[in-house]
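Complex record, two chains
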Amino acid sequence: MRVELDEPKCVAAGQCVMAAPDVFDQRDEDGVAVVLEEHPAAELPDGVREAVAVCPAAAIRLAER
Amino acid sequence: MKRIVVVGASTAGLAAAETLRREGYDGTLTLVGDELHPPYDRPPLSKQVLSGQWDVDRTALRTPEDLAALGLDLRLGAAATGLDTAARLVRLADGSTVPYDRLVIATGVRPRRLPGDGVAHVLRTLDDALALRERLKPGSRLVVVGAGFLGAEAAAVAWRLGVEVVLLEPAPVPLAHAVGTEVGQILSRAHRDHGVHLRTGVTVTGVTERGVRLADGELVEADEVLVAVGSLPNTEWLGGSGLPVADGVLCDEYCRAAPKVYTAGDVARWHNPLFGTPMRIEHRTNAAEQGMAAARNLLHPETGKPFAPVPYFWSDQYDMRIQAYGYLRGHDEVAVMEGDLSERRFVAAYRTGETLTGVLAVGMPPKAIRPWRQAIATGTPWHDALASNAL
């Protein structure tokens, strides 16, 4: 699985960081999300799918491989 | 349980459908939507879509592949017109019926209209946004009725496109009921600073081809009129179903409206135990969170979890990014915790009773706001919030 972030879509809500703090962070200056772990373990951390689902900009996608 | 029907194919409905699949439900899953478009995102409509920055494709909530992978029985362009809870059937506009074992209602809201505003634009759907965008030409005149968040965003976008904008608001201070008088004043000053003509305390009595008629008889001339005066929950189709409806579908803290029937998103009015009050929230984030919560509680009622979120919303107006956590309505006091209102760079905290119930930030680093969310989620007493300023 690969975590894909459509950065221009991000609205800096930080919901992904709250859902999966090991995988996402926010830039200090504008709060835009940063993917810390583009290839999380095969056993996805619980919060990652949650982050995809709650992202208010639909900016996160999980791609196979 | 072999057949789950989700009525409403926007954020809440899609979140519910995805969660059902993710949690292992592999029966028939029908997703009913009244629009023809596959599920798309609404917040960009008054921002990137209206400004022309984004193509329509960018608003899709999921790629066609991701949507196909859900294995949905997708019924688009099919408005639900009736519900029979005894027979467990949803009736659709085309005359067909869809039986269910479990039902999720996520039919959202529609724009409130003004009497006789037939020629005016509203802004709720993708088609609405495209129709208005088409008409926003530099030098044209737009009257926006209603200076709430939607009206304010649309006014800001139109201004940037070179449109002459008049923004009409019946209340003395826009958004005061939502964010308080002081913050409302500061936010509305941005309109005036940018040359958008904001007029408060004016009542619109009619919309004509030539513009907008005010209560005192004045005609405010316009090429286009946008009515943005709030919304109404889509519950008419539930008439006679026996479901409790009162400004939304009433449900308990598990998002359950009746046996086997759950509800989520803009249409749902539920008791939020975190704030100890019933609420209906028209925010993008809530729609996703509640869709997920309703789906989980539907599948696992024995281990059901109360839905107790800290609501979140944001709004982009001119160069301002407004972000808010919590439940600001009905607050008793607002205190500026960081920054300066007049510079439009601040964090304001909201007290209801003796508890911190909300924060609203403008122009602050988003990361700096997150600790406040936590403070709201834990029900921080107001005096502690004040004492630990900036947490």
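Note: The longest strand of chain A covers residues 2-5.
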